[in-house]
Write a structure and sequence with these properties.
Blueprint: H1 4-11, H2 19-26, H3 31-37, E1 46-49, H4 50-74, H5 79-85, H6 90-97, E2 108-114, E3 119-126, H7 136-143, H8 146-154, H9 162-176, E4 185-190, H10 199-211, E5 215-220, E6 224-226, E7 232-234, E8 237-238, E9 241-244, H11 248-251, H12 255-269, E10 274-276, H13 287-292, H14 296-299, H15 304-313, E11 317-320, H16 326-334, E12 339-343, E13 353-354, H17 360-368, E14 375-379, E15 385-389, E16 396-408, E17 411-420, E18 436-443
Parallel strand pairs: 1-18, 4-5, 4-9, 9-10
Antiparallel strand pairs: 2-3, 2-16, 6-7, 7-8, 11-14, 12-13, 12-14, 15-16, 16-17, 17-18
Helix pairs in contact: 3-10, 4-15, 5-6
């Protein structure tokens, strides 16, 4: 997505002796962030119109409200029926529904492409187990470089710190259980045996949260104990807020974890230790939930404004593998090149199949898997390309950006991008060695001043 910020940045940086080489060499990110991401950083940030990304965040909030209303509006409030409609197995529905209120907190991150005319929502990840909350550490590091800071000031660049939003929500949660909101003890809690799988990421989050004045402990759900007063503790430390990074799939089927979840939910309900966020939000994070918004029976229950929102923001999405999805499956069989096949619930692009990248036989094999796992077929979105200068060669290459855009009760909550050159594949995930990450700066919709960096 080329804009005036990009054009100015590149025009001032394309010379190998220009500021981009200096910027790359001089930027120093915090130690734990460097360990987690320093080896996969793009040579420059991505720019976007502030008005456009804030408007998209408003749309995300509206999509969230619509999704949350579906059980009540279309399934008589029955979460089991709703869950079955999006292909969730009963054991997951049970875990996600424990303690459900019907009013989950708006705390989410969209994965989106920009097609050159606007953002298109690929999936909406609802809940606190989100990556990228520490991405503003890179924004701050870039602004510490005098040349880039001058460029940013001259052109009114800005950024939103996602950690500011998260910390505000954690402090509010602490206050809700009578804890000190200024310096609550927060524990980031993973599923059984999973903390070490992402330890570098969690240490970076811990580092950034410390900068924001919050002590963050790291642990797993089975390590939480319950005191006589009902308050949870981690390895003997009383915990004011549990920052949930465990997922429903890590709990269902594990008897120890299941008991631990009930303990956490009990402490939350008793207002002794807050859970940020309950697993209720996971009922709406499945990509199949977005697919419901395209079903005729669901669309009939939506307002005209909601239908317009769905058509504008969401690529067409079909739910597969559920009762009544035979027509959707037939459509997927005959439209391979224009579709993407995705698990309804999945992470790091696990199980994603791009129709145009596989043979008919491979596509058919992937479709057969929908009989045993929740899947959706989604209209392929062709993203606009981002020009990026290689600081070593001075040559400009083209990259695809997958936008991670946060939305919270405070509105737009910051953004970051994962990027990939088309020659390295179609699936943008850090499991793909060609993927690079970067931060996002917003800019006003005005022509940039002449200013070398």
């Amino acid at each position: 997505m080329e804009n005036s910020a990009t054009v100015r940045y590149l025009s001032e940086s394309a010379d190998p002796d220009s500021g981009l080489r200096t910027l790359t060499a001089q930027t120093t990110v915090p130690a734990e962030y460097d360990k987690a991401y320093g080896h996969v950083l793009l040579p420059r940030p991505i720019f976007v119109s502030e008005r456009e990304i804030r408007a998209f965040a408003d749309d995300l909030a509206a999509v969230f409200r619509t999704l949350v209303s579906l059980p009540r509006r279309c399934f008589d409030g029955d979460l089991a029926r709703y869950g079955a409609a999006i292909g969730l197995p009963p054991e997951l529905i049970e875990v996600m529904s424990e303690g459900a209120t019907g009013d989950p907190l708006l705390y989410a991150r969209a994965d989106a492409f920009h097609d050159g005319t606007g953002f298109r929502l690929l999936e909406l990840n609802v809940g606190s187990e989100l990556g990228g909350v520490d991405s503003a550490q890179l924004n701050r590091a870039l602004l510490d470089v005098p040349a880039f800071r001058s460029f940013a000031e001259a052109n009114a660049l800005g950024h939103t710190d996602t950690m500011d939003h998260l910390v505000a929500e954690l402090r509010a949660a602490a206050a809700g259980v009578g804890a000190d909101p200024v310096s609550p003890v927060v524990a980031l809690i993973e599923g059984p045996g999973a903390l070490g799988d992402h330890d570098s990421v969690f240490l970076s989050i811990q580092e950034d949260m410390s900068r924001h004045g919050i002590e963050l402990l790291l642990g797993e759900i089975q390590e939480l104990t319950e005191g006589a007063d009902g308050k949870l503790a981690l390895r003997g430390r009383p915990v004011d807020v549990v920052l949930r990074y465990f997922a429903a799939g890590q709990i269902a089927g594990d008897p120890v974890a299941r008991v631990a979840l009930t303990r956490v939910n009990r402490a939350h309900a008793a207002r002794r230790t807050a859970l940020f966020t309950p697993l209720e939000g996971a009922l709406f994070t499945s990509k199949a939930a977005l697919g419901l918004l395209h079903l005729p029976a669901v669309r009939a229950a939506l307002s005209e404004t909601e239908r317009e929102l769905v058509d504008r923001v969401l690529p067409r999405t079909w739910v597969l593998g559920t009762e009544g999805s035979e027509e959707a499956l037939a459509h997927a069989r005959t439209h391979r090149a224009s579709l993407v096949l995705k698990p309804g619930i999945g992470y790091s692009a696990d199980g994603v199949v791009i129709g145009r990248d596989v043979t008919d036989a491979e596509w058919e094999a992937a479709l057969e898997a929908t009989a045993v796992r929740d899947y959706v077929a989604q209209e392929l979105v062709v993203p606009a390309l981002e020009p990026v200068v290689d600081p070593e060669t001075g040559r400009t290459g083209e990259w695809v950006a997958n936008w991670g855009i946060f939305v919270t009760p405070q509105g737009f909550g910051g953004a970051f991008c994962r990027t990939l050159q088309p020659k390295d594949g179609s699936v943008i995930t850090y499991a793909n060695p060609g993927t690079r990450g970067t931060c996002v700066f917003t800019c006003p919709e005005v022509e940039f001043e002449e200013s070398r960096i």
